[in-house]
Amino acid sequence: MEILRLSVLFAVTALAEIVGCYLPWLVLKQGRSLLLLVPAAASLAVFAWLLTLHPAAAGRTYAAYGGMYIVVALLWLRFVDGIALSRWDLIGACLALSGMAIIALQPAAN
pTM, whole model, 2 decimals? Predict the structure, then answer.
């Protein structure tokens, strides 16, 4: 159950970060309204707050989070950008999630 809770928390954290970075990208690359910077800043603030909800030390949280970030970014690539994922994307995502699980679920030090 712990891996499910951590995975959902990591996924929501990654989504907040991606949205917070994607909106300024739209402003800078596609000439969209500067008003998109307001929800972008809010999304990045939520991202930072969500990182504080993780139970592990910050460095370990960031390391494990990276695995889920890769998966969410690939899902964004597929469903927002409309680009099909390759088998290499899927293999990399599985490896990233395996690394996340190893780091996040390691036994406590004695």
Answer: 0.85
